[in-house]
Design brief:
mainly alpha; Arc Repressor Mutant, subunit A; 3 domains; 5 strands; binds zinc ion; zinc; metal-binding; DNA/RNA-binding protein
Length: 203
C-alpha cells in the first residue's frame, strides 16, 4: 500500500482498509453496494456517492463500525434463536444461514476479523455458550425470554415444595413410629431378664 497524501481519497481509502472495512468479493459495506467484479468495484470507488460516504466514514469510522458490528451480531443471534433454538450447533452453520440473506451485514464491515473472533466475543460477553471442538466452534443460544425465566422459576419453586413435602412426610413417619413404639409398652428386655431369673431358680 503506497503512501498517500493526507486527505486525498486514496489516503482515506487506505485508512478505511486499515480499520478493517475492506472489500470482500467486491462488496462495499459502507455504501452497501455489491459490485460485479474488480473493475466494477474500481468504478464504484471513484463514484461521487462513494467519495461522499468515504468522507463521512472518515469522520465517524468508530460509529460506523460499531453500528455494523451491532447489526451483524443482532442478525446472527436472530438466526441462531429462530432456526436452532437452544440446540448446540456449529457456529459456521449459523453463519452460512446468516449470509444467505443478501442484505446481511458483511463481517468485513464489523470489528471482527474472523468468525472465531466473533464467536469468542459472544461467549465472553455471556450472550451464548461457546466451545471449541475439532470441527470448529460450536454455539448454544441462552434463552432469557421472560416466559422461559418465569417457567424456570416455577419449576424451581415446585421442586422446593416437593422437597418440603417429602421432608414433612418423613417427619410424620418418624413421629408415628415413635408413637407406635410407646403404645406397644415396655420392650422385650424385662421379659428376657425375668426368664433368666426363672432359670436361675430352677437350678
Ligand atoms: Zn462505496
Amino acid at each position: 500500500m503506497g503512501k498517500a497524501e493526507v486527505g486525498t481519497p486514496k489516503y482515506l481509502s487506505n485508512k478505511m482498509k486499515a480499520k478493517g472495512l475492506q472489500k470482500l468479493r467486491w462488496y462495499c459495506q459502507m455504501c452497501q453496494k455489491q459490485c460485479r467484479d474488480e473493475n466494477g468495484f474500481k468504478c464504484h470507488t471513484m463514484s461521487e456517492s462513494h467519495q461522499r460516504q468515504l468522507l463521512l466514514f472518515a469522520d465517524n469510522s468508530k460509529r460506523y463500525i460499531d453500528d455494523f458490528s451491532f447489526q451483524f451480531a443482532k442478525g446472527y443471534m436472530e438466526i441462531l434463536r429462530r432456526q436452532f433454538g437452544t440446540k448446540r450447533v456449529n457456529a459456521n452453520r449459523v453463519y452460512q444461514e446468516y449470509i444467505h440473506d443478501r442484505d446481511h451485514i458483511h463481517m468485513n464491515g464489523t470489528r471482527w476479523v474472523t468468525l472465531t473472533g466473533f464467536v469468542k466475543w459472544l461467549g465472553r460477553t455471556g450472550q451464548a455458550i461457546v466451545d471449541e471442538t475439532e470441527k470448529g466452534w460450536f454455539i448454544t443460544y441462552i434463552d432469557r425470554s421472560p416466559e422461559t425465566v418465569e417457567r424456570e422459576e416455577k419449576k424451581k419453586k415446585k421442586l422446593k415444595m416437593d422437597k418440603n413435602d417429602e421432608e414433612k412426610r418423613m417427619e410424620f413417619i418418624e413421629k408415628q413410629a415413635k408413637l407406635d413404639k410407646e403404645k406397644a409398652g415396655p420392650s422385650v428386655e424385662p421379659v428376657y431378664s425375668e426368664l433368666i431369673r426363672e432359670n436361675e431358680e430352677e437350678t
